[in-house]
Design brief:
By secondary structure, this protein is α/β, with parallel strands linked by helices. It is built from 15 helices and 14 strands. A 7-stranded mixed beta sheet has the order 7-12-13-11-10-9-8, sandwiched between helices. The radius of gyration is 22 Å and the shape is globular.
């Protein structure tokens, strides 16, 4: 597609360029970092081009500041190819003391030993994810999370996506280059993307050779545990059963660390609020991928397969919902967590704003589980010590059903394909 599709991160990028010297956009490959950066850049240093990279490396050895010359904002694409650029950008920002000088993009986390300064106060950071349903044009946007925080609207909406459409959205993913493509074209794109993860990206991230077969098995195990708090030991046991050969949990930990560095994994951390009782809060992160299509690929699940496997469909639907909620929450300057405690109570997504306000979501694919999800949310509300914590601004059940409405008990029911920031 040649036409740029607006992203919710656009406004964040504009705000950062108005207030800080450099902005780093991080996220998985192919999610649109470079394309978004190009919309605001006036010059570009493209480090993805192998024809010119060697020349740039030689210049960096002689006088790295030459690579920073150009109209501002200057886009430095995949800056981690020359890690010394980080400190060079930070120094240039210090010297010029102006906002909006550089936009940097990165698909790989760089070892902190390769840089001398964190860049705090000079380089802002933005996380880009794959496109939400609203950004792709598949959510009606009739229900706004921002409005749920600011008042108590009498919501209404109708989803355009049915059960089979939602399954298709999961396996297609949210990559900009997939929009408008046929199912077969998208399947081949995702296959190439996931093959690159196991055969090259997982090793080139830090120069340590890793086995592609082990990487595939670990990703398959993680995919089975998506939307669940699966620890590394469980993955090790699972992979060992698949191969009839032991794989040490330290090996699993190493592979998972590499997957995190290339932004393939995007686990959801735990929320630890102030409670009325001494109930133990579970702090294990919940497993999620940067896009649910990665899970579907490693499970070898088509849209039709998901429709005949409601359990797997539900877990991947939850992961897609979490991705979308994270995109919307970030646009509201908020963060997303999960809640689980020792009494077995849970909430799939807690959106927490910088001003202390919070709202809770449960995610249920079908209508049959709405009542129990609403009861869980109300139990969570009753556990919060409101003398030390804000009461929830809203409680909501995200569904794959058709209509958005507010229940008599005040809990909202919101189809994912009606939601926006």
């Amino acid at each position: 597609m040649s036409e740029y599709l607006p992203r919710l991160i656009d406004q964040e990028l504009k705000d950062h360029l108005d207030s800080i010297g450099a902005v780093l956009i991080v996220g998985p490959k192919w999610c649109g970092k470079t394309t978004t950066g190009r919309q605001y850049a006036k010059s570009i240093l493209d480090l993805q081009n192998e024809d010119t990279l060697q020349n740039y490396l030689q210049i960096a050895d002689q006088k790295i500041s030459l690579l920073l010359k150009g109209d501002n904002p200057r886009l430095i694409d995949e800056w981690q190819e020359i890690p010394r650029l980080w400190d060079a950008v930070r120094f240039e920002v210090d010297q010029r003391n102006e906002p909006g000088l550089f936009i940097m993009t990165g698909s790989t986390t760089v070892d902190n030993a390769a840089i001398r300064h964190s860049g705090a106060g000079r380089i802002g950071r933005l996380k880009m994810r794959t496109m939400s349903l609203y950004e792709q044009g598949f959510s009606t946007g009739e229900v706004s999370i921002g409005e749920l925080f600011n008042n108590h609207p009498d919501i209404a909406g109708c989803s355009n996506l049915d059960y089979s459409n939602l399954a298709e959205m999961i396996v297609r993913g949210g990559w900009p280059a997939s929009i408008g493509k046929s199912r077969e074209q998208v399947r081949r794109q995702i296959s190439g993307y996931c093959t690159a993860i196991t055969e090259s990206d997982i090793s080139t991230v830090d120069g340590r050779q890793r086995d592609s077969t082990k990487a595939t098995l670990i990703l398959r195990s993680l995919s089975r545990g998506v939307s669940s708090p699966v620890n590394n030991s469980s993955v090790s046991e699972d992979v060992s059963k698949l191969t009839n050969a032991a794989i040490h949990r330290n090996t699993v930990s190493d592979y998972i660390s590499a997957l995190e560095k290339i932004h393939v994994l995007d686990d959801l951390p735990a929320w630890c609020p102030n409670l009325r009782s001494k109930t133990a809060i579970r702090t294990t992160a919940v497993r999620h991928f940067s896009d649910p299509a990665i899970s579907a690929y490693f499970l070898d699940a088509s849209a039709e397969d998901l429709q005949y496997d409601p359990r797997t469909f539900g877990l991947l639907f939850e992961s897609m919902a979490v991705r979308d909620i994270r995109v919307y929450a970030q646009a509201l300057d908020g963060s997303v967590y999960h809640y689980r405690d020792g009494d077995g109570l849970e909430a799939d997504a807690i959106v927490h704003l910088h001003n202390g306000k919070w709202g809770a979501f449960e995610v249920k694919l079908g209508a049959y589980a709405i009542d129990s999800a609403a009861e869980n949310l109300k139990k969570l509300r009753g556990k919060i010590d409101t003398s030390r914590e804000h009461p929830p601004s809203f409680l909501a059940v995200i569904t794959g059903t058709e209509y958005a409405y507010q229940r008599k008990d005040g809990v909202y029911v919101i189809p994912l394909a009606c939601l926006k920031n």
